[in-house]
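Late entry, written up from scratch paper. The run itself happened at the end of the previous shift, but nothing got recorded in the book at the time, so transcribing now.
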Amino acid sequence: MAGNDNEDLFTETFDECDDGEQELEESSPQSDGEQSCSICNDKLHSPRLLSCLHVFCLGCLEKKKRMVENGRETIVCPKCQQETYLGRKGVHGLACDYISTNIQDMLAINSKAMVCTSCKTKEKAVARCSDCAHFLCPNCDTAHQYMRCFENHKVVSFEVLLKAKEAVPIHKPVFCETHVTEPMKFFCNTCSVTICNECVVVDHCAPEHHYERLSDAYERHKEHLHSLMGESKTKMAYCEDATNSLNNALAELQAQHDNAKGLINETFQSYKAMLEKRKDDILDELKELHSERELKIMEMFHVVEKSVERIEDASKFTQRLLEHGSPAEVLCLRQLVSTQLLNLINNTPKPDVNTTLEFVTDMDKFTSAIQTTFGHFRKQESPVGTATTTPQQESPPPPALSLVTSSVACPPSSVTSSPVSMPSSYEGELALAPLLPFTSIQEYNLSALASLAEGPSQVSTASSPTSSFTLNDLLCGDITSSTNAIKNLEALVKLGNVSLNEPDLVNGAAGPAPMMGRGSPIDGIPPALSPMNGGTYPRNSPTAILSSASSASNSVILPSVAYNNRAGAKSAQAMQVKYKFGTLGPGKGQFNSPHGFCLGSEEDVIVADTNNHRVQVFEKCGAFKFQFGIPGKEEGQLWYPRKVAVMKASGKFVVCDRGNERSRMQIFTKNGHFIKKIAIRYIDIVAGLAVSSQGHIVAVDSVSPTVFVISDNGDLLSWFDCSDHMREPSDLAINGKEYFVCDFKGHCVVVFSENGSFLRRIGCENLTNFPNGIDISDAGDVLVGDSHGNRFHVAVFNRNGEAICEFECPYVKVSRCCGLKITSEGFIVTLAKNNHHVLVLNTLYIV
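Output as recorded:
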């Protein structure tokens, strides 16, 4: 009989799905979310399908329909807001979701709640007839076995159905809408519809109509739907790239806004007496342009996100239809599904945005035309819109602003030296005061210092060329606690190309010679430094480095520092600079005192750009990918972000910044979109941040040495105090059930179990001096990094804490490195905070 043919076809269909197709996790027929209506939040009743392929109850859709101007009824999908036009039958004319109906029947069978549909007794059903699609009680089951009218009917018991391999082993016959008692058996290729036996005789006669059996048409149209679904999924990848582009466009727009605003204010200072009102007008114009373009980008953002949702939902439904639908079901829904997928494919939004906010000024014409020479915005009309085709080329980047020369001064550090002149891994509160311009005397002194620093540096312990220290090292470095400041100052007060390692150029100093860097001896140190403005200051007395009668805040204290000779430093293997990227500034690829970084799931370098209030993402080679974060203390904004980590499973970012509190933690998507905030009022300063293999967030507090384990939902799972075993945490790594915490002032790494029990110490003074970075290789080796002596040094230990080897980079002078990570190729990555750059170093170390 025809019913047997259909049953065999259904079985073959699901066998093919089991053998040859990879099931999507989202398309599981047992998903509770897919069997409930999102309008009434109840189980689907008479499920009907909209043109967007979302499924709702018939009764719920009846309440949602509305009349439009042309007299037609429409329904706007509550999920995606796509409009579906209704035919003359109204909501009842919408296609039925056969899969949901079959799944509900299987759920009822599984819960033993199905009653007999073949008689009026309402007894519990024990079997199902595949031909008449009725659930049978024991009496009806017996009747099917002995009555001639049920001869050749195939009855399957519930026990057999529940043991079936198919996800949906039952299917109801699909009947013709015209001849309601006839099941669909053929597919008319001429009309592209499913038809029954009566249709073949009456409305779809050969040779005018070409038709074939459902089983013959199924494979061809199944492949067509597969092809459309695959093409639509490629659009998802494009939309994800478009989302990243739009996110970068927002950040670029903000950067352009900030640059333009800075230039406006700087130009205004020169015209202040005459241009007070004009300045306000220009700033208002900037604000209006920025708001207008930001609004357009956000509108485009919304369009792209909706496209992604629609493609995901359409693909999800199509996958479920192809995996679990019978040929009749697939072909009945083919036109509807094809229409939606083609609609999504052909109407993919095109992100065409204009982020240029370039302020143009011509100060040479100031006296002749104030209104025109103060400046205006270069307008390039490129409205954000929706296109029907995917763009094939990228728009050129906006031109960079040409900023006028400005003076920058670094405020003094609020951190004082400890009684033993020990540096600290935390440099106190970040300076919030505006940067002050130099006086003329200071500018002269800086010019003299810079000219002296231009001479090539001579290092006797390295044959490779080394870069001399920069003026930024002197100005923005931690002068009160870093040995390189003394070295640089002592070098600068001498003439030209003077090396501190040449005894004939250093005038006698009493007492034993201290050690320079990682074991370079200094034969003599002059007893006093001679400032540029004249006068002599003892080495450990307050000394005005940038002398000025009007700027007392620039005076600093030079502590007495004992240069420790690192044990085994001479045997340390040299690390070559593979990549070096980043400079001081607010632009893309520039940093301002970054305090932390991590490696992403694809080993991207994610940097917490602290004083620029953002997070930047780079490839390992230094190529900029994107950035996220807008300055502010509200949720979703960033305010001095210090640490960042990545949840490898989802790609989400965990960012620790300040906000309105001492510390806060925020979660962002892999594209940089804000998800939620986690309150961490119990943490003063996050010194180390990591994510465990279970997906838990682990943070260590440097003020009160304590390790906290937090779930991704923000719940505090556990914590333990480690102050009895260490002095000041500076970084954190996790290996299995062991927590490795760097002790900055204890010159070692302290290992704890996950319950807080002390296990062991790794490293010691002269081997791991002031450690500020740690990572663990795949083989279990522990790599500990430090920048003591202004060279980045790595000590490698086995899992038991025994030293294996050492590495050192003699080619780049660094100050205050933060963190250490090892890549899959064995490259060492670190972040030089005071140098404002990232170093990727190559070693002979095999991971």
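Residues 214-270 form the longest helix (57 residues).
(Scratch paper discarded after transcription.)
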